Amino acid sequence: MTSKDVLEEKVNYLLDELTLEEKFKLMVGYFRFQTNTIPRLGIKTFKMTDGPLGIAQHSSFLRKNTYFPAGVNLAASWNRELAKKCGEAIGREARAINRLCVLGPGINIGRTPFNGRTFEYYSEDPYLNKEIAIPFVKGIQSQRVAACPKHYVANNQETNRLIVSSEIDERTLHETYMRSFKEVVEQADPWTIMTSYNRVNSEYVHGSLKLLKSTLFEKWSFNGFVMTDWWATRPRDIEKGEPHQPTTEEAVKAGLTIEMPVPFLYERIELEKAYKEGKITLEDIDELIRRLLRIYFNVGMFEDKRNLPTGERNTKKHQNLARKMAEEGITLIKNKNNLLPLDISKVKRIAVLGPNLKKKFGKFLSGGAAAVAPPYEITPLKGLKEKCKGKVKIVKNPSKADVTLLFMGLNHDSPAKLLSDKVRKEEKIEYGWESETVDRKELGLNSLQVNMIKETVKANPNTIVVLNNANPVSMTGWLNRVPAILLAWYPGMEGGRAIANILFGDVNPSGKIPMTFPKKIKDSPAHKSQKTFPGKNFQVFYEEGIYVGYRYFEKNEIKPLFPFGFGLSYTTFKFNEVMLNKTELKSLDDTLELSISITNTGDRAGSEVVQVYSEDVKSSVDRPVKELVGFEKVFLEKAETKAVNVIVNARDLAFYDIKTSDWKIESGDFILHIGNSLESIYLKRKITYKPG
Ligand code: BGC
User: Fold this and answer.
1) How many angstroms separate the alpha carbon of residue 116 from the centre of ligand 1?
2) Which of 128, 263, 293, 506 has the fewest CB atoms in 10 Å of its CB?
3) Is residue 339 domain-shared with residue 486, that is, in the same domain?
4) Which domain holds residue 366?
């Protein structure tokens, strides 16, 4: 018997012991982050906690926990190994406080730079998205803690999030928005999945036979259980024209196991009624409970605690990992005349200012449900003070310093603060807000910040801007005036140290932007009309189809402010040549290995992200100009040459074919473009897809 058979046997045994009433009890949340217990059978509560940036304070009885860099920062690192380590560490922190499920990763696609939750997610590109999400999920589950990829699916804005319907054509839905979920399910076997608040093509996902049963379960063979987002099932205001919730029967048939955190659809009386009326059967219920019990066994609910991972929290190891992640994610996008790195032996005085200089981001509900409150947080000021102690004087006046550091960005406080009347008006407008429940309104920085940048540069031309935000911002009126810009992407509790290490060159930056920076919002694919964002009559139309992010910019030849995959280093790299282990791919399961020789031609060690994009030379369907299909991050000493291996899976060259409802590659040629951003391509090779 395989271990899978053994598990199924145990599950069925336990299932037989449960009464129908007990099964109903297991289908609803208890308290905010728990489920019900059946003590007579040893079924304990399944405690969950918010992620994905660490263990959230509000779901861990107000505990302080390691605050890791935001998802977008992790994506900017392009480092799968770090994603795995981060998942493992979060799994260990969850274990240490007996949480059996982490509500993350967030793998929705960056459709618009206005989305308030971009910081929790990874990228506009489904390939990068899944490549980070897969090791992250595996990392969490290595600690026998369930991961919960969320929010399935097309949850790409906060405006009207409980009622809006994302109207998406079939191909786009699969190719762009469902792809990461599919790949994560197939390759990382997540134990749970959370449905989204929004509707998709007018249907709530928690009641969708198509999106749950037919796709998630039958097509992708998802083994775990589905839960709703919190209060997603609350009745809607029909009089105000809000849409109907699915019925109890529809949710059961679709495959929703747990309604969180309290019952509406799964009120016992409703379940009993549907059962008595024959609208749901014992088989339907058993299918849902089987999924649940499987995971209860996986997390070791019935095992002796001594045999389970014990976990650890707030250790130096986790804090160092948080710093290392920040150091790899922070991205340098401008560095005129090599102003950076600063030479600590030469710089005498630095001026530091800006609204984010001393601001802490790891606070209760800061940014919404993902907020982690750490035992300490190194702000940029603190990081710089440590670094400069006894060596460089820190002052406030730019005109009296060799260099000025300006800490700007977007606000990330709790949504409640935004709504509160008590908060000073100026504070509300000092930043653009990006948090759960609120979308941004402007692409630019707040005018107060823009003016501050201009004034500071006048006083001191050696001004470096450090932006702390997740979404792209436009830089009209100031980009050309400042010589250097660093993107910090909410770098977590050790962020200040990471920033100081990069500014002074102890760490060579290697982050690459995971989202295209548009020059202006009208250039962005989702922002053509109110209909396309944020929607009209509770519908938002994804008219751009598969042309999200860089796919849109390239197709329409719109020059972005900064292209996808772009990021500078303090050294330079030369892409010498590429060797392929084959030039013909024969099936969707085939793989190709590229060996790319690259040399560090600068005067210090550093890491580079080798990126491979594919171009389908001729296709019967419309295809993007290029699409990311492979990458590898590599560290090179000064003057070192290395051969970097990049694996390209044929499957990633495919498109979603609506005729067959499946992924397809057409016979013919593809060009592989190799470089260090979408726009910096140094090598090209032709390959052929020839099945059979
Ligand atoms: C969020 C989820 C979160 C849940 C529990 C919801 O508001 O959308 O991402 O996991 O709350 O806090």
Assistant:
1) 13
2) 506
3) yes
4) 316-519+549-555
Residue to probe by mutation, ligand 1, list 101, 103, 258, most atoms within 8 Å of CB: 103
Same domain? 584 vs 507: no
Instruction: Give the model confidence (pLDDT) of 645-682 as tens digits.
Output: 999 999 999 999 999 999 999 999 999 999 999 999 99
- Distance (angstroms) between ligand 1 centre and the Cα of 131 equals 23
Q: What tokens were used for 629?
A: 């299909």
Whether the predicted pLDDT of 362 surpasses 60: yes
Atom of ligand 1 nearest to the CA of 261: 5
Active-site residue, 286 included:
no
Are 326 and 463 in a shared domain? Answer: yes
What is the Cβ-side half-sphere exposure of residue 388, based on CA atoms within 13 angstroms? 22
Ligand 1 mean position to 565 CA, how many Å? 29
539: in domain: no
Query: Which residues are within 8 A (CB) of 206 and not within 5 positions of it... i.e. 6 or more apart?
Result: 195, 212, 226, 228, 232, 233, 246, 251, 254, 256, 259, 265
**How many domains is the chain built from?**
2
Cα–ligand 1 centroid distance for 230 (angstroms)? 6
Indicate if 511 and 365 belong to the same structural domain. yes
Between CA 658 and CA 96 the distance in angstroms is 46
- CA distances in angstroms from 310 to 102, 305, 405, listed in the order given: 16, 8, 43
pLDDT in tens, 309-340: 999 999 999 999 999 999 999 999 999 999 99
Q: Please indicate, yes or no, whether residues 350 and 466 belong to a single structural domain of this protein.
A: yes
Mean pLDDT of the chain: 96
- Tens digit of pLDDT for each residue in 18-52? 999 999 999 999 989 999 999 999 999 999 999 99
- Start-to-end CA span in the chain (Å): 35
Q: Is the CB of 150 under 6 A from ligand 1?
A: yes
Is the CB–ligand 1 distance for residue 438 below 6 Å? no
Catalytic residue among 5, 16, 189, 229: 229
Minimal-distance CA residue to ligand 1 atom 6? 230
**Tokens describing residue 620:** 């019967």
pLDDT > 70: percent of the chain = 97
Query: Is 60 exceeded by the pLDDT of residue 109?
Result: yes
Cβ-contact 500, 80 below 8 angstroms = no
237: phi > 0 → left, psi -120 to 50 → alpha, else beta; which?
A: beta
Nearest ligand 1 atom to alpha carbon 58 = 12
**Bridge partners of 670?**
616, 687
Residue 334 and residue 446 in one domain: yes
Ligand 1 pocket residue status of 369, Cβ below 6 Å: yes
| Protein residue whose Cα sits closest to atom 8 of ligand 1 | 229
Q: Is residue 514 part of a domain?
A: yes
pLDDT given for residue 692 in this prediction: 83
Could you tell me if 368 and 463 lie in one domain? yes
* Ligand 1 pocket test target in 47, 162, 230, 262 with most atoms within 8 Å of CB: 230
Q: Whose CA is nearest to atom 12 of ligand 1?
A: 369
Over the stretch 127-180, which tens digit does the pLDDT of each residue have? 999 999 999 999 999 999 999 999 999 999 999 999 999 999 999 999 999 999
Which CATH number do you get for residue 663?
A: 2.60.40.10
Q: Does the beta carbon of 48 sit less than 6 angstroms from any atom of ligand 1?
A: no
Q: Which residue has the tokens 């129908």?
A: 20
- Confidence grade of residue 418 (pLDDT, cut at 50, 70, 90): low
